[in-house]
Amino acid sequence: MRIKSSGILLLVAILLFSCDKKRVFDEYKSVGSAWNKDSIITFDLPVLDSTKKYNLFINLRDNNNYPFKNLFLIVAIETPSGFTKVDTLEYEMAKPDGTLLGNGFSDIKESKLYYKEDVKFKGKYKVHIKQAVRESGKIPGVQALEGITDVGFRIEQKD
Question: Would you say which domain of life the source belongs to (predicted)?
Answer without folding.
Answer: Bacteria
